[in-house]
Backbone:
C-alpha cells in the first residue's frame, strides 16, 4: 500500500467503456512519485489517502475486468481533520 496526498483531479471526456464512472485523481506519494488512481470514495484535493495497486485494485470491481491499476481504499484521518 502507498500513502499519498491528492494533488488534483483529472477530467476525461473520452474513455474506454470498461473504465467505470468515477473520479480519477492525481496523487503524490510520500517519496515524491506521482500516480493516477481511481477514487470510489469522493476524496478532495489536499486529502491524505491510502492506495493499493495491481491485481488488488482491479479486483475491487467484481464481475468484470477493468483497466484500473491504482485504487484509493481509504482516507487517512489527520489531526484536525473532521471530513471523513
Residues:
Amino acid at each position: 500500500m502507498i500513502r499519498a496526498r491528492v494533488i488534483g483531479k483529472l477530467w476525461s471526456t473520452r474513455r474506454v467503456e470498461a473504465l467505470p464512472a468515477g473520479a480519477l485523481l492525481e496523487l503524490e506519494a510520500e517519496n515524491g512519485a506521482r500516480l493516477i488512481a481511481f477514487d470510489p470514495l469522493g476524496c478532495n484535493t489536499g486529502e491524505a489517502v491510502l492506495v493499493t495497486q495491481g491485481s488488488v485494485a482491479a479486483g475491487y470491481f467484481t464481475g468484470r475486468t477493468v483497466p484500473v491499476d491504482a485504487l484509493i481504499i481509504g482516507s487517512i484521518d489527520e489531526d484536525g481533520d473532521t471530513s471523513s
About this structure: The chain has a mean pLDDT of 90. The two ends are 20 Å apart (CA to CA). The first strand starts at residue 2 and ends at 10. The beta strands are 2-10, 23-29, 34-39, 48-53, 70-75.
